[in-house]
Design a protein that fits this description.
This protein has 450 residues and is of the alpha/beta class. The chain folds into three domains: 211 residues, Spore Coat Polysaccharide Biosynthesis Protein SpsA, Chain A, CATH 3.90.550.10; 107 residues, no CATH class; 109 residues, no CATH class. The protein is 49% helix and 14% strand. The chain has an eight-stranded mixed β-sheet. A three-stranded mixed β-sheet has the order 9-10-11, with helices on one face. Helix 9 packs across helix 12. The radius of gyration is 25 Å and the shape is globular. It starts with 9 loop residues before the first strand and ends with a helix. About 1% of the residues have low confidence.
Length: 450
């Protein structure tokens, strides 16, 4: 990271739209960064702001250089691209305007790049822990918490959809190599689409939990904004399936529109003609959800929420497709035939891990002698399988149930076929209480019967 003495090492790029108060809090937090040895600047892109954000920024005096870019409201993808054009740092750190960074945030990103040059560094931004009993709020927080728990899990295999631009850093050279964000993904999935291209370039993803920011989603996300977001996600997923057909079978838009049942055909017939109702659905939907929640009708509320999101999502998909709708609905799954790497656990797990580290295969067949244990599948825009993935896959319930008879035969003797007949081994990894209770009752009856 050699640079001129006055040149910032990192450019923190913050797109913002009418969030003056939150934006000021983000900048205040950046001004309190503990490690002042990391030179950084901040580039704020005001995208169609009609609040007091320009005046607030003009009146600030911060310990870092502050650059301001004003745009007429082009969406976060183009706003981030414009911020990069204005930035001077050789590392680009993207931060949302509702994510309050903790002390050491910038330094943690810098340290991650020093330890792994050329990587895309994914920072953490879980929801601010604010108490709420609102079901929408709880569901939203559950999604965000599960996302970051997944990134932190041992043996996690990174894919394109792990990449989110709310807290992300990568080098300028890498950004220019892959071409930045695609502006056609104007308001959603621009980060996932960038993740596809980074994965195809073989760029490693690393998770940096120390680069922590608190997401103020309780202030910026509402049931109404969630429906608007669902429509934008549908639009972007349809475009993603057209641009990256190898991903089509993974995206909800293409799966839903290809279903051969009568409900799917009816939706495909009616949805293109229902555009005039979008505004009414997005306005009335949240009110209906609140009424059902106040009445304690949890099941109907959950059902209505799914239907509203599905409507908005599919309306976005169909609007984006236009003339490509017929072709989109008739495409195949984009499946790819990949020769798996054979791993024999009978030769030892260390040997298997060494082979994975050496070969980095796209798919793996795991066996123990002649017995097939599991297949680690091919996935487009995902990192190749590596040594650190293996053990976490072996402890998955569906895998351990296949492996358990082999291990039991090795440890206690007898044939694998005999251990296969032991029903209790089929319960390994089962967490359902009722299933466990029934199995314990069956074992007790067999014991008493003897």
């Amino acid at each position: 990271m050699d640079s001129l003495p006055d040149t910032p090492v990192i450019s923190v790029i913050i797109p913002s739209h009418n969030r003056q108060t939150l934006l000021a809090q983000v900048l205040d937090a950046l001004a309190r960064q503990a490690d002042v040895t990391v030179r950084f600047e901040v580039v704020v892109v005001l995208d169609g702001c009609r609040d007091g954000s320009p005046a607030m920024l003009a009146g600030r005096s911060d310990p870092f250089p502050l650059r301001i870019v004003e745009l007429p409201g082009v969406g976060p993808a183009m706003a981030r691209n414009a911020g990069v054009t204005e930035a001077a740092g050789e590392l680009l750190l993207f931060l949302d305007d509702d994510v309050i960074p903790t002390e050491g945030f910038v330094a943690a990103h810098a340290a991650a790049h020093q330890s792994r040059p050329g990587a895309a560094v994914l920072g953490a931004y879980p929801p601010e822990p604010v108490a709420s009993g609102d079901r929408f709020r709880l569901d939203s927080r559950r999604w965000w918490t599960a996302h970051f728990d997944g990134l932190a899990a041992r043996g996690h295999r990174f894919t394109y959809c792990d990449l989110l631009t709310g807290n992300l850093s990568l080098s300028r050279a890498l950004w220019e190599e892959v071409g930045g964000l695609d502006s056609q993904f104007a308001k959603a999935r621009e980060d996932w689409e960038l993740g596809v291209r980074l994965m195809e370039h073989g760029v490693p993803f690393i998770y940096a939990p120390q680069a922590l920011g608190w997401h103020q989603e309780h202030l910026t996300t509402t049931p109404g904004s969630a429906l608007r977001r669902a429509k934008e996600e549908g639009r972007s997923d349809a475009l993603m399936a057209l641009k990256h057909p190898q991903l089509a079978h993974l995206l909800a838009a293409s799966r839903q529109l290809r279903r051969p049942n009568w409900t799917s055909r009816l939706r495909k017939l009616l949805l293109p003609r229902l555009g005039l109702f979008d505004g009414a659905v997005m306005a009335a939907g949240p009110k209906m959800l609140r009424l059902l929640e106040r009445a304690g009708l949890v099941g109907p509320r959950r059902w209505l929420d799914r239907q509203l999101r599905l409507y908005c999502y599919q309306r976005g998909s169909i609007e984006a497709l236009g003339r490509d709708f017929a072709r989109f609905g008739g495409e195949g799954t984009g499946g790819v035939a990949v020769q798996p790497l054979d791993l024999d656990l009978a030769q030892g797990i260390e040997r298997a891990e060494a082979l994975l580290a050496e070969r980095r295969p796209a798919t793996v067949r795991i066996r123990h002698g002649d017995r097939e244990i599991a297949v680690l599948p091919y996935a487009p825009a995902a990192e190749p399988w590596n040594a650190h993935h293996l053990r976490s896959q072996l402890v998955q319930p569906h895998v351990i149930r296949k492996l358990a008879p082999v291990l039991a035969a090795s440890a206690f003797g007898g044939g694998v076929a005999e251990w296969d007949k032991l029903a209790a081994l089929g319960m390994v990894g089962v967490t359902d209480f009722t299933a466990q209770l029934h199995e314990s009752q069956r074992q007790w009856m067999r014991l008493v019967g003897r």
